[in-house]
Specification:
alpha+beta, 15% strand, two-stranded antiparallel ribbon
């Protein structure tokens, strides 16, 4: 009986840890999506790691280019997304405009 209880405990701890980790990841993703949907930079800021970096890959004029986005840039763009707009569509529209503006400055 003790062996059975020890075995159950041994296998349940990793499952519990995975559940806790999964819940934390889902909470962070939900916070990011809510921040974008509500155009709330504070919510976006609250869930992003201090060292966050996003790198996207775009086809521009027939040539593939990397486009890095810093944490501060992403948080700053959050207030520009129209409230209630689908998250992905709103983000890409704002990001495209920001990249176009950066290209005009060079």
């Amino acid at each position: 009986m003790k062996a059975l209880l020890a075995g159950l405990l041994f296998f349940s701890v990793p499952v519990y840890a995975a559940d806790v980790e999964s819940a934390a990841v889902l909470k962070a993703v939900q916070g990011l999506l809510d921040g974008w949907r509500e155009a709330d930079p504070a919510k976006v800021d609250a869930v992003l790691h201090p060292d966050f970096r996003e790198v996207t890959y775009h086809l521009r004029d027939g040539k593939w280019e990397f486009s890095p986005v810093t944490r501060d840039t992403l948080v700053g763009l959050a207030h520009k997304v129209p409230k209630g707009r689908p998250v992905v569509v709103g983000y890409f529209q704002v990001a495209r405009r920001a990249q176009e503006q950066q290209g005009q400055r060079h």
